[in-house]
Amino acid sequence: MKKVFGRPESLSTKANMYCPGCGHGLAHRLTAEAIDALGLKDRCMGVASVGCSVFADDYFDFDFIQAAHGRAPAVATGMKRSKPDCIVFTHQGDGDLASIGAAEMVHSANRGEKITIVFVNNAIYGMTGGQMAPTTLAGMRTSTCQLGRDTEVAGHPLRVCELLKDLQGVAYLERVAVDTPAHMNKAKKALRKAFEVQDKELGFSLVEVISQCPTGWGQVPKDAVNWLEENMIPYYPLGVFKDVTAED
User: Fold this and answer.
1) d(C-alpha 70, C-alpha 149), whole Å
2) How far is CA 191 from the centre of its chain?
3) What three-state secondary structure class fits 231?
4) What would you measure as the largest C-alpha separation in the chain, in angstroms?
5) Which of 73, 149, 174, 238 is the most exposed, having the fewest neighbouring CB atoms within 10 Å of its CB?
6) Could you tell me the pTM of the whole model?
7) Does residue 248 carry a pLDDT above 70?
8) What is the DSSP string of 158-174?
9) What are the two backbone dihedrals, phi and then psi, of residue 66, each rounded to the nearest 5 degrees?
10) What crossing angle do the helices spanning 72-82 and 102-110 adopt, rounded to 10°?
11) Which tens digits make up the pLDDT trace of 182-210?
12) Strands 64-66 and 44-48
């Protein structure tokens, strides 16, 4: 009988410990499937940072390095420059990448470092208590803004793809989501494209994954998916923001 579904080779056999309904595990699987489809597993190295992404090294079946909070792009830069034949990627959340790690992210993109960032955006600090993140939506309630994010005080939610798209070192940017099977199929294609861009040494690539966080949002998984579709995607529209291969 033909096998049509199974665990990707690039994933370990360890059961993940993410909360029910969390999108991090989905992002892991889609990343692993993209790596397997391109036959890149034996060349891959990953960087896990701080937050829910800290567990990534447990779930992939190849070498990982643990970075300090926000420093994953800097660590990935060192890895890629010392091992240029390897495929190097980071797995980061919004509190890590868009806050304390914003400088590392922007400057690695601006330099055109040939790395890939898998950026999971669930608009909240999921691991440490549900605090407001740089990507928390206006009016959204968190443990540190219980009346909702006030943009007069905290500024507006940060759109990372829009921020990076005009930097010359950036080769590929796409925003995807993991709320529906159709969106997950597009996410897998985007991740595959990002790794292809790195393999061709075209520059920096980033895939932003809009994800639900039922625990941080105080919702059951089904309601979290609905909330993502009604609130997250309108502010963070899905699509390709830059693709140098399409400009040729």
Assistant:
1) 23
2) 10
3) helix
4) 61
5) 238
6) 0.95
7) no
8) P-HHHHHTT-TTEEEEE
9) -90, 125
10) 40
11) 999 999 999 999 999 999 999 999 999 99
12) parallel
